[in-house]
Design goal:
Elements (H helix, E strand, L loop, with lengths): L1 H10 L1 H10 L2 H15 L3 H13 L7 H16 L4 E23 L3 E2 L2 E3 L11 E8 L2 H5 L9 E5 L12 H17 L4 E5 L25 E4 L1 H12 L5 E23 L4 E11 L9 H21 L4 E8 L7 H9 L7 E6 L7 E7 L5 H11 L5 E3 L11 H6 L4 E6 L4 H4 L12 H20 L10
Parallel strand pairs: 4-5, 5-6, 6-7, 9-10, 9-11, 12-13
Antiparallel strand pairs: 1-2, 1-8, 3-7, 4-8, 8-10, 12-14
Helix pairs in contact: 2-11, 3-9, 3-14, 4-9, 9-14, 11-14
The structure holds zinc ion (ZN).
Length: 464
């Protein structure tokens, strides 16, 4: 037996050596403990249930947004975080009141739609006009000037389904700038097939922009089955008219807060691992997948670490404000901490639902790769594969950090195959989250954050 063990140790020397160099056997035992504890705990589920039920939807600037800030602060305090504080962030405050739609010609039928974020209102009786369909945003951009006067432009682009959500980027262009491009051609309203992979009759909202000097026209997404219906009618040669009625309000500049909880490190308290999600959500659902899950699981992960052993470096859970309206909390956070971004030894955001984490990826310097491999080894029992590309981008709230500095960024890639069935809809509710998957996510973040905080060598980022 002894001989066999000696032989095995000789066969797997590399990872073993790195683990021994970077982590003590006690630390590795603690990683195992934290993983088991997270897998057997309901804490992340309890937090998510409380946030989505007792607070509900959390549109930035709403009463519920204020409640969510108070909720997060109180939860951090009750969970025993060493430091809990708020940092303000401003954003364009927008609200939705009522919305409805109908096909009025060739026959009257309901149209399931939703205003896109920042959309202006229609007149109180709505806008009724003929629809002109484009398969892509580029097709709309190529349309002759004035060709859409008194018309409603409709972009019918279909998003692709993919495990890593790579269909989102190409589809979201039509949401961000579709209304601007339509207005340039004279359209009086803009309508798009939802940025969605679903066949259910929910419209998907999301942020959109106007451009100075281009008229602001009502801006809406329709449910995919309704887009199919319009497409059938138009392709059959019918002249199709619809009525769109959106009642919204631009309330000027709003203020919300990033809520931050820290487990203070024992040896290098200034250095910290940043994990988190965004506290705000769209108003249609209860923001369970986007991003209640990320909030709950990162709060729980840090709590499990603290309960097992105080880390050497700090672990900071940042719950970003107003992500949905344009990363306003993240911009404020990284601006406020601009002179101390070097203190961030690792950063990862969970903002892609609550399905299983399948891959672990870094963006670090070559000298830090052995630590990454050691972490990957401790994530493997959770069914997580090590992705060697070393090109992790982290979550959306880490974009301002990546732009400002070469911080070490990590991604715990979640299976996003179904994410865009629910994203930004009335259907983003707690029942879409599987408790066991949430536990696996929590365990993954706990293992990652604990090891990043405890490595002997400080992680460093990959130079751009
Ligand atoms: Zn999100």
């Amino acid at each position: 037996m002894k001989k066999l063990l000696t032989t095995l140790c000789a066969i797997v020397p590399l990872i073993g050596t790195v683990q021994a160099q970077e982590f003590t056997s006690t630390q590795l035992e603690q990683v195992k403990q934290v993983r088991e504890q997270a897998l057997n705990s309901d804490l992340s589920w309890q937090l998510l249930e409380s946030l989505t039920s007792e607070v509900g939807p959390r549109l930035p600037g709403s009463e519920n947004d204020k409640k969510a800030v108070a909720w997060a602060k109180q939860q951090f305090e009750q969970l025993g975080f060493d430091k809990v504080w708020l940092e303000p962030a401003t954003f364009p405050h927008w609200r939705r009141y009522r919305e409805s739609g109908a096909i009025v010609s060739p026959s009257t039928q309901p149209l399931h739609l939703t205003a896109l974020g920042n959309s202006v209102s229609t007149p109180t009786d709505g806008i009724t006009a003929a629809v002109v369909m484009f398969e892509t945003l580029d097709e709309l951009i190529a349309a002759p000037k004035k060709s859409l006067e008194n018309k409603i432009a409709f972009v019918n682009y279909r998003m692709n389904r993919h495990i890593d959500g790579n269909g989102y980027g190409p589809a979201v262009r039509a949401r961000s700038s579709g209304a601007v491009e339509a207005a340039k051609k004279g359209a009086i309203a803009y309508m798009m097939r939802s940025v969605s992979t679903s066949h259910h009759r929910f419209a998907h909202t999301g942020n959109s922009r106007y451009q100075e000097g281009v008229s602001k026209i009502p801006n809406t997404a329709i449910a995919n089955p309704d887009a199919d219906q319009l497409e059938r009618l138009i392709k059959a040669g019918h002249a199709v008219s619809v009525n769109i009625n959106l009642q919204t309000e631009d309330l000027g500049e709003g203020t919300s807060y990033n809520v931050i909880g820290e487990i203070t490190g024992s040896e290098y308290p200034e250095h910290y691992v940043l994990i988190g999600g965004h506290l705000d959500s769209w108003d249609l659902g209860t923001g369970a997948l986007d991003d209640g899950a990320g909030v709950a699981l990162t709060m729980a992960a840090a709590t499990h670490i603290k309960q097992v052993a105080r880390p050497k470096r700090s672990i900071r859970v940042v719950l970003f404000a107003a992500e949905e309206l344009g990363l306003w909390g993240a911009k404020a956070y990284f601006k406020q901490h601009a002179d101390k971004l070097d203190n961030i030894v690792a950063a990862a955001e969970s903002d892609f639902g609550a399905d299983l984490v399948y891959g672990f990826e870094s963006s670090v310097s070559a000298t830090s790769l052995p630590i990454v491999r050691a972490i990957a080894q401790q994530l493997a029992p959770l069914g997580i594969e090590y992705i060697r590309a070393n090109s992790a981008r982290g979550g959306p709230d880490l974009i301002p950090l990546r732009q400002a500095t070469d911080a070490p960024i990590f991604a715990l890639h979640q299976n996003g195959t179904d994410y865009f069935d629910y994203h930004h809809t009335a259907d983003d509710t707690l029942d879409k989250v599987a408790p066991d998957k949430l536990k696996q996510n929590t365990a993954a973040y706990a293992v990652f954050a604990m090891m990043a905080a405890n490595a002997k060598t400080t992680l460093t980022g990959k130079a751009k």
